[in-house]
Design goal:
The structure holds 2 protein chains of 2 kinds. Chain A folds into 2 domains: 8-136 and 267-338, Response regulator (Rossmann fold); 140-261 and 344-374, Response regulator (Rossmann fold, 3-Layer(aba) Sandwich). Chain A has helices at 2-17, 37-54, 70-82, 95-107, 120-123, 140-151, 165-178, 196-205, 217-229, 244-250, 270-283, 289-307, 313-322, and strands spanning 24-30, 59-65, 88-90, 111-114, 131-133, 156-162, 181-188, 209-212, 235-238, 258-261, 333-334, 340-352, 355-368. In chain A, the strands form 2 sheets. In chain A, strands 6, 7, 8, 9, 10, 11, 12 and 13 form an 8-stranded mixed β-sheet that branches. Chain A has a 5-stranded parallel β-sheet with strand order 2-1-3-4-5, with helices on both faces. By secondary structure, chain A is an alpha/beta fold. The chains are: A alpha/beta, B mainly alpha. Chains A and B meet through α2, β7, α8, α9 and α10 of A and α1, α4, α10 and α11 of B.
């Protein structure tokens, strides 16, 4: 009898050590309804495409819609951690939702991999060993835009962004690398749809160029109105307003605009070519920046799963830190605060047949990290 | 932008005057657009006593119908016609299926039911058109700026919106003050039971008023959609402003809606531009920009509060 139970215990222990085959449960909280749904749907589709292509049946993904509301995101995270028992959380698009969910999820010993939002708080003092950002730190694309403006010889730029934390980060990021004079600096209302007043100020300011960060519908409105206003100053912005999902809605008004991005569909590597082709085949549309981030996030998780068991957090974390996967951006590695160190490219909006898309015309920043890494003590 | 042959101080002054006139035009255009949305809302509220939160959804229906028709036919005029027809049809349908059951209920029930309609419209639109913004642009014959007297460059399309809005406002006044339908609408406003007793088909009148309000909102959606983003949820910010407008102008009054809209449009536009400049006089530029921007966001609500303190029923509202 004793021998029998001993044998049972031994076989149980043996089971536990081979538990690398235990499925990894991923909870994805993202925005699938309401105004910002296009972004969440792209992240989800990119992520699920990578999972499908891997053929790995050991990964289970639970997907929920946060409706872009922080309180709902928190409820979903609690439910996923407590009743679904997920190992990894991911998916959040917006920085304010990330701030509501990430600190408590990582404090409860879960991994969080951000496919988009990268608020400065989580990159600096609030960094955590279980928090990884696979996209960028919020300031990065704006810093690249500033670097481009400086290199292009602009000396009197007019800058504007919505009056909320990510908007303030954007203007700070731009100014960090730009260094020239400002013809004007405006904070607009979040969700503002009419920019006639701002455009009139730009016209009167004597600026030589315009930098703006207006994500989603705000950017569409601004660009259409700007194109119609007769002001013909060159425009620079981060990729968010020139993303594949909204370019078709902006139309010819965006042609020739310079924008900065860590990814584009014409980056020349095998992983990216295959991604762009299979994404189009699967979903019938061109992938966006957000889709590429979702795709990379899933591949990062899959690469870590191949090397370690998620239950053994330290080894799994080391496997994530190694980031040994074929990123669609080409070279990819994590800095000391688990944020990417990567190249950021300069793109131009072009027309291919009747589709508007981006083309890479140069590199704004090489092996760029972020300004907050030094404040991070893990 | 320096103009040759004039001293710098004079140039700056000229520049500022031009900027100010341009901003007043912008405020006027914004106000006129608001009027198209608020007119329907105030009529429905005044005549039927109904709080319709789904009014913004009808705005969205108009924009989507216009984008779909413009995409298929390439004609902006047809797109505008489609926006009127689609929003009026959606309005009439909603009135007959849902709203009709709500007139006798209290306002809380109306708010709940019309809030549900917002969700149904939003997700229904997403189901039909997808989650990505649609393309709708200004037709080439209305695009680009024109030069106004005094050297002001102003987009032709915005001038057209101002003109269309004022024509429609005029039309509405005539409709309400000079036509039989207008008499019935005014009668319905002052005594619902009595006009029913006089043999007017009140339920048909309600459907017509509702569809008329919806059509105006749909037209506003299409006009604005050409210079903004046509996407799910685009109606809700406009709805909030429209409520502010009818509270300021006095509930149920088209005249109040017009004056209220223009006041709100001017306050919002000029506040956004002037407040940061005022703060720059005694604060450093970056703090001034951020405080000015925050205060500008509140300016229309401060205006509303101020109006309510002086005239609790709105500028043109009857004495309570």
């Amino acid at each position: 009898m004793k021998l029998k139970s001993l044998f049972a215990a031994a076989s149980l222990a043996a089971l536990a050590t081979t538990a690398a085959a235990d499925p990894v449960k991923v909870g994805m909280i993202t925005t699938l309804s309401g105004g910002g749904a296009g972004l969440g749907i792209d992240v989800r589709d990119g992520f699920m495409l990578a999972v499908k292509q891997s053929g790995n049946t050991d990964i289970e993904v639970v997907i929920e819609d946060d409706q872009r509301k922080p309180d709902i995101a928190v409820q979903l995270a609690d439910r996923m951690i407590q009743s679904d028992k997920v190992d990894i959380l991911t998916g959040i698009i917006w920085s304010n939702l990330a701030m509501a969910v990430v600190p408590s999820a990582t404090a409860q010993g879960k991994f969080y991999l951000s496919p988009n939002a990268g608020p400065s708080q989580l990159a600096g003092k609030g960094c955590h060993k279980n928090y990884f950002n696979v996209a960028w730190q919020n300031d990065n694309l704006h810093e690249a835009a500033g670097a481009y403006a400086k290199e292009a010889g602009y000396t009197n730029t007019f800058i504007l962004a919505p009056n909320y934390p990510a908007g303030q980060d954007a203007l700070t990021g731009f100014k960090r690398t730009y260094g020239g004079e400002l013809a004007g600096e405006i904070y607009t209302k979040l969700g503002q749809t009419d920019y006639a007043g701002e455009i009139a100020q730009i016209r009167a300011s004597g600026a030589d160029s315009v930098f703006f960060f207006l994500p989603g519908g705000m950017g569409i409105s601004f660009l259409k109105q700007y194109a119609d206003s007769g002001v013909e100053l060159p425009v620079v912005g981060p990729a968010f307003s020139f993303d594949q999902g909204i370019l078709q809605a902006v139309g010819a008004a965006a042609l020739g605009v310079i924008n900065t991005s860590q990814w584009n569909k014409d980056i020349d590597n095998a992983a990216n070519k295959a991604f762009v082709e299979t994404f189009q085949a699967e979903y019938g549309r061109l992938p966006s920046l957000y889709a590429s981030q979702g795709f990379d996030t899933a591949n990062l998780i899959l690469s870590a799963m191949a090397k370690a068991d998620v239950a053994d957090q330290d080894t799994f974390r080391a496997a994530l830190e190694a980031a040994e996967f074929a990123s669609v951006r080409g070279d990819f590695k994590f800095g000391p605060n688990h944020h990417p160190i990567q190249d950021i490219f300069v793109r131009e909006v072009i027309q291919e047949g009747d589709v508007f898309a981006n083309k890479i015309i140069g590199t704004a920043l090489t092996d760029h990290g972020d300004a907050y890494a030094a404040e991070c003590k893990m | 932008m320096a103009l040759p042959g004039k001293p710098l101080g004079e140039q700056n002054k000229l520049m500022t005057t031009i900027l100010l006139i341009e901003q007043v035009l912008n405020g006027l255009q914004f106000g006129v657009m608001l009027f198209l949305t608020a007119a329907g809302l105030t009529l429905v509220f005044g005549v039927m006593g109904l709080i319709n939160l789904a009014h913004g959804s009808l705005f969205m229906v108009g924009a989507f119908a216009a984008a779909a028709v413009a995409g298929a036919t390439g004609s902006f005029i047809l797109a505008l016609a489609a926006s009127l027809a689609a929003a009026a049809a959606a309005g009439a349908l909603v009135e007959m299926l849902v709203i009709r059951r709500l007139y006798s209920r209290d306002h809380l029930d109306q708010v709940l039911a019309t809030f549900a309609l917002i969700l149904i419209f939003s997700e229904g639109t997403r189901w039909l058109f997808g989650s990505f913004p649609l393309y709708l642009n200004i037709p080439t014959w209305l695009s680009g700026p024109v030069t106004l007297p005094g050297g002001i460059q102003y987009p032709l399309y915005r001038l057209t919106i101002i003109a269309i809005g004022l024509v429609i406002a005029g039309g509405l006044f005539l409709l309400i003050s000079r036509t039989r339908l207008g008499i019935r609408i005014r009668a319905g406003e002052s005594d619902r039971e009595m006009i029913a007793a006089l043999g007017v088909d009140i339920s048909k009148l309600y459907t017509i008023v509702f569809a008329l309000g919806a059509a105006l909102a749909g037209l506003a959606g299409a006009l604005v959609g050409a210079i903004q983003s046509v996407q799910v949820g685009m109606g809700e910010p406009v709805l909030i402003l429209a409520f502010v407008v009818i509270v300021i102008g006095g509930i149920g009054l088209v005249k109040g809606a017009l004056i209220g809209s223009i006041l709100v449009g001017l306050t919002d536009t000029l506040g956004r531009i002037l407040l940061p400049e005022v703060f720059k006089l005694f604060l450093d530029p970056s703090t001034a920009t951020s405080i000015g921007a925050s205060l500008a966001t509140m300016s229309i609500y401060i205006l509303m509060a101020a109006v309510l303190v002086v005239k609790p029923t709105g500028l043109f509202g009857a004495k309570a």
